[in-house]
């Protein structure tokens, strides 16, 4: 028991020591650059470990850092997916934070597609674990994770619906303006619909 607590404290201290330096380097880097990607992946590795240490203040800070890494580098989603099963508690904390702060956090992402892909992977892993896992504590964590994944997937679907509606409205306005001008031939109208991928939007 003493060894576990000692190792936990050491891991926490290592994260607290290295995190400010890594983040300072990351903030000084150019978004999307190779150096930035490498740094965010390094930070994510430390932050995931720290978030699962069971220290409330550290978990809150680490989960904020993890989400920051995800917004800065979409490749971090794949890294998070790889770390998921071995760091379940940390992932639950991050998922819970994303649910609680969805309006604030969702707008920080350049694209939400990596999140959707990652959540789909998490759900498959959760479903498999829920069907086979016998440990009560782990089962509770997987159920919690699955609940948060379902909420986030629902919100992503609603976001997609809103964006789709806005695009459809834009197409309708463009077509309406063209028809009103009475200068558009049927071939021009067809080209406009193809350019907007209108038929796929309706499906």
UniProtKB/TrEMBL annotation:
Its main location: endoplasmic reticulum. The keyword Lyase does not apply. GO terms for cellular component: endoplasmic reticulum membrane; Golgi apparatus. It is found in: Endoplasmic reticulum membrane. It comes from the Eukaryota. Pfam families: TMEM214 (PF10151). The keyword Membrane applies. Critical mediator, in cooperation with CASP4, of endoplasmic reticulum-stress induced apoptosis. Required or the activation of CASP4 following endoplasmic reticulum stress. Constitutively interacts with CASP4; required for the localization of procaspase 4 to the ER. This is Uncharacterized protein. It comes from Rhododendron griersonianum. The lineage of its organism: Eukaryota, Viridiplantae, Streptophyta, Embryophyta, Tracheophyta.
């Amino acid at each position: 028991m003493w060894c576990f607590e000692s190792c936990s404290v050491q891991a926490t201290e290592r994260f607290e020591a290295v995190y400010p330096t890594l983040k300072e380097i990351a903030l000084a880097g150019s978004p999307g650059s190779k150096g930035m990607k490498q740094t965010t992946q390094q930070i994510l590795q430390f932050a995931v470990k720290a978030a699962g240490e069971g220290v409330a203040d550290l978990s809150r800070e680490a989960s904020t850092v993890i989400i920051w890494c995800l917004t800065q580098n979409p490749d971090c989603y794949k890294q998070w997916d790889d770390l998921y099963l071995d760091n379940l508690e940390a992932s639950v904390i991050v998922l819970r934070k994303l649910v609680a702060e969805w309006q604030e956090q969702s707008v920080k992402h350049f694209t939400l597609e990596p999140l959707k892909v990652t959540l789909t992977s998490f759900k498959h892993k959760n479903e498999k674990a829920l069907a086979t896992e016998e440990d009560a504590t782990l089962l509770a964590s997987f159920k919690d994770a699955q609940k948060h994944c379902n909420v986030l997937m629902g919100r992503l679907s609603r976001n997609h619906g809103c964006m789709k509606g806005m695009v459809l409205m834009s197409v309708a306005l463009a077509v309406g303006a063209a028809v009103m001008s009475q200068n558009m031939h049927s071939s021009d109208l067809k080209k406009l619909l193809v350019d907007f991928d209108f038929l796929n939007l309706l499906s």
